[in-house]
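Quiz preparation item.
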């Protein structure tokens, strides 16, 4: 396979930057006593960036079947080691993912391709239904598929509590995102459910039990660690925004 990007030695620290630095995820896993290796953290960062590119393909304001076909074509290019077919590949993100993908076990490769392909099918179905209950069911499944991609291999580790946290957290994230972006998604034809206040409230209301499950999946000590971690992440993000605003004045 062509060397799309220099290989990362396993002893080298994770690349810094928004695309690949997912150390926060490693710290999150550690709250559940799941210790991720440096290589796993790099892979999760690359996978997260890949999700963004694949979502952009699915969300193109074109016919849904065409967008789904384009999405599957890119998945096939990754799975079949034909990177020249990766036409929608900003910053070589999909190429980098393809390099890592080729090094994984067949089981892990199947796991990623299975869930990414299912997410593509769900995106097409979301464009076709105007029923709010049906859309909720699709969103719930979509959240679980995204979460499954990030569930770590056990490798002798007890990952059950972390997997439960990710499952509920993934559903919450998708429901919240849909409630927030419903108007824009509707205008672009990505959903047929109208962006009414009632429909937004419906999705937020359905999010409540999953949010409760997120909280209940952690012990009191884990909840304290999670709170400290997320508070630090929010403060760090706020600080970066403030610096950015100061730097952009004048």
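Solution:
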């Amino acid at each position: 396979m062509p060397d799309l990007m220099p290989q990362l030695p396993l002893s080298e620290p994770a690349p810094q930057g928004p695309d690949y630095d997912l150390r926060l995820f490693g710290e999150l896993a550690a709250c559940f006593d799941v210790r991720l290796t440096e290589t796993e953290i790099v892979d999760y960062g690359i996978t997260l960036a890949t999700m963004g590119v694949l979502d952009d393909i699915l969300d193109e304001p074109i016919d849904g079947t065409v967008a789904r076909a384009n999405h599957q074509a890119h998945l096939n290019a990754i799975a079949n080691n034909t990177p020249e077919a990766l036409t929608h590949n900003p910053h070589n993100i999909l190429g980098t993912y393809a390099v890592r993908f080729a090094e994984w076990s067949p089981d892990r490769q199947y796991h990623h391709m299975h869930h990414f392909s299912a997410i593509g099918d769900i995106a097409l179905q979301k464009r076709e239904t105007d029923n709010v209950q049906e859309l909720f069911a699709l969103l719930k499944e979509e959240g679980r598929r995204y979460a499954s991609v990030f569930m770590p291999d056990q490798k002798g580790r007890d990952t059950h509590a972390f997997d439960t946290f990710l499952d509920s957290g993934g559903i919450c994230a998708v429901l919240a995102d849909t409630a927030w972006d419903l108007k824009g998604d509707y205008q672009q034809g990505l959903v047929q459910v109208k962006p009414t206040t009632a429909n937004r409230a419906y999705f937020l209301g359905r999010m409540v039990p999953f949010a409760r499950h997120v909280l209940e999946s952690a012990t009191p000590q884990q909840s304290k660690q999670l709170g400290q971690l997320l508070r630090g992440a929010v403060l760090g993000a706020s600080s970066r925004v403030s610096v950015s605003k100061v730097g952009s004045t004048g």
